[in-house]
Amino acid sequence: MFGLSFLAPAFLAGLAAIAIPVLVHLRHRERSEAVAFPSLMFLQRIPYKTVKRQRIRHWSLLALRCLILALLTAAFARPFFNRAEAGVALDGARDIVILIDRSYSMGYEGRWARAQAAARSVLDGMGRDDRAALVFFATGAQAASGFTGDVAALRAIVDAAEPGAGATRYGPPLELARRLLEASDRARREVVLITDFQRVGWDGQQDVRLPAGVSLTAVSVAEGDEPANLSITAVNFDRQTVGGRERVTTTARLAYKGSRPLSGVPVTLEVNGIELQTVTVDIAPNSAQTVTFDPFTLSAGESRGTVRAGTDALPQDNLFHFVLSPSQAVSVLIIDADGASERRSFYLRRALEIGDRPPFRVEVTHLGTLRADTIAGRDVVVLNDAPFPSGVAGRALIEHVRRGGGLVVVLGERSSPASWEGDAAELLPGTFGAPVDGAGRGVTLASLDRNHPIFELFRAPRSGDFTTARVFRYRPLELAGTDGVLARYDDGAVALVEKRVGRGRVLVWTTTLDNFWTDVALQPVYLPFVHQVARYAAGYAESRPWFTAGQVLDLGAARDSMAFTPGGDEAGATSAPAAEKAAGAESVARFPGLAGGELVVLTPGGTRTTIGGDHPRVLELTEQGFYELRPAGQANAAPYTVAVNLDLAESDLTPIDPQEVVATVTATDPGTAPAATAATAGSIEEHERRQAVWRYLLIAALLALAAETALAGRLSRAAS
């Protein structure tokens, strides 16, 4: 039977009102009316019997009136049929969420087949009125179907699924299951988790709790396994320039987890489809080993490479892909003042010429011989203790910055404040004055923004000490605001400041970069500092040899750069669009040929997609291998290639006890009890609102009232 409950049971006390008309009616007596007569001789004496109580003569009328009161009272109490009791009493129908792990570790020998078999077993055990929803997960989770009782359709989805390239995270699928079941009105709700239960996917800190009454069944497909796995955990490259060509030495690091030693494992380096070298190694149990290949010469354009290490039960992590391109030199133009000796730019030029990541192509000229075409094509221009150029050259320098070039202004003896007029003044973050001598033995660099790209290299302990450098003279810089200050002297004066102009960057250094006003050029930090300044001013971003599956490329980033954000956010990986994932991405590589317009993407699996146009130019990397990118309409153009590797944390097959996950997810959190109670109360109220039994009770009360009125009138006419 249906269980009947009331949302406002206190109103049931009104049923006591039914007794009131009954009691009044039963205790009612007709009162005698005394009439005074002058004489009783004309009246006949007859017997007279009185009664203390009336008998009920019209039971039907009384019943109608009591029914009206009962119906009104019940309507105000807002009754509803209890869902749980009704569900069990009717058919015991279930809603089941089946969570299937499709991370790449499920490709380990036999695991995926066991996972599919387990899912089919759950589907085959469904009752006639049961429903199921399928959710596949790895780093994130995605619902492959809503709740449905179509077992054939669900089996087809399971049969067509395959393991992917993502890593395991248990938080997103359990959270998605919670949301699905909270929207269910079934009495019996279940979750079935089918996975290999890797420890790397569960840290015990996931704030996920299934709703009360929901059961979680853990199905491990790794039981009985004694996993042994060989993986390539890293590949490093050492570049050297020999005879004007770059030679690359490749070193691969292997990790093996297993109880038996491996012997004769072939490790192969392949570049552009050609096998360059194979090295055979022996690996001890639970150990790591490095393999270094002979150097090879980088060809022009892109070189695709792959390192392979034997074969085992999990072949996906025995591959490591990369893409290398010849280093692009950063072109630097140093402008000295007229009449300045070579020593003015000697330290700066020599420091830049030593750089190899990236290499710097340095040219020194004097202000008097500067032409507009000398500035064209430069990545960075250094105005080294010289006035701002006038005429055509000055306008060319301003345009160079606005279009995205870098400008480093080194203030010294020959810098002229008067030369920075008109449009040139807009390049500076403020105005500078006459030289100031540092007190005593000079000032030091005391305040650095070590979170800025220029100084982040020196953030770690013993990575470079700027306080040993002395500055004996500098030009004070009066700023319009405090934004952009990257370094100050110990007396509070500005040492280095940045300003964005158009698409370019302007850096102002308030002392010299030689040993005339300071001894910074004689300190160990000088060379890396100068390199960082030039790299940042040029907007240089080193090409990444590879990305990791789950990351998102933002191909619409500023300055025609390619950017990325890490994937696998525990909470939002299930439904966040790629455009949101790419928000705030950092610049990692330059692809000038992909600027603007639509792009055609060929995935490692052979699927062609188009991005850009009216949609964000973002690409989510979901497959292992090489992605090819071309501008739309240029099928014959050489593609830009992106190498994608697996998240190597997934190669650790160490399992976790399934009951640890079950206990955590199904445990009642005392801190959430009030919220759970409120949620339950809200659910009950919503359930009562949907049934709206009180409306039917009011209608019945109105009908009973109409019947009572008609019956009372008929009885009254009959009595008269």
Q: State the major sheet.
A: 8 strands, mixed
**CATH H level, superfamily name of the largest domain:** Class I glutamine amidotransferase (GATase) domain
- Please tally the β strands and state the result: 36
Strand content: 25-35%
**Low-pLDDT regions:** 84-91, 558-590, 670-682
Give structural notes.
The chain is α+β, with helices and mostly antiparallel strands and about 725 residues long. It folds into five domains: about 5-85 and about 690-720, no CATH class; about 90-220 and about 655-665, Rossmann fold, CATH 3.40.50; about 230-325, Immunoglobulin-like; about 330-540, 3-Layer(aba) Sandwich (Rossmann fold), CATH 3.40.50.880; about 545-650, no CATH class. It contains 14 helices and 36 strands. The protein has an eight-stranded mixed beta sheet. Strand 8 (about 230-240) and strand 9 form a beta hairpin. Helix 2 packs antiparallel against helix 14 (about 695-720) and helix 4 runs antiparallel to helix 5 (about 150-160). The chain is elongated.
Topology of helices and strands:
Blueprint: E1 4-6, H1 19-27, H2 59-76, E2 79-81, H3 83-90, E3 94-101, H4 111-124, E4 131-137, E5 141-143, H5 151-160, H6 171-182, E6 188-195, E7 215-220, E8 229-242, E9 245-257, E10 262-271, E11 274-283, E12 287-292, E13 296-297, E14 303-309, E15 319-324, E16 330-336, H7 343-354, E17 360-366, H8 372-375, E18 380-384, H9 391-402, E19 406-410, E20 430-432, E21 436-437, E22 445-448, E23 473-474, E24 477-479, E25 485-489, E26 494-501, E27 504-509, H10 526-538, E28 547-548, E29 552-557, E30 561-565, H11 578-581, E31 586-590, E32 599-602, E33 608-611, E34 618-620, E35 625-631, E36 640-645, H12 658-666, H13 673-691, H14 693-719
Parallel strand pairs: 3-4, 3-6, 6-7, 16-17, 16-18, 18-19, 19-27, 28-36
Antiparallel strand pairs: 1-2, 4-5, 8-9, 9-12, 9-13, 10-11, 10-14, 14-15, 20-24, 21-23, 22-25, 25-26, 26-27, 29-30, 29-34, 30-31, 32-33, 32-35, 35-36
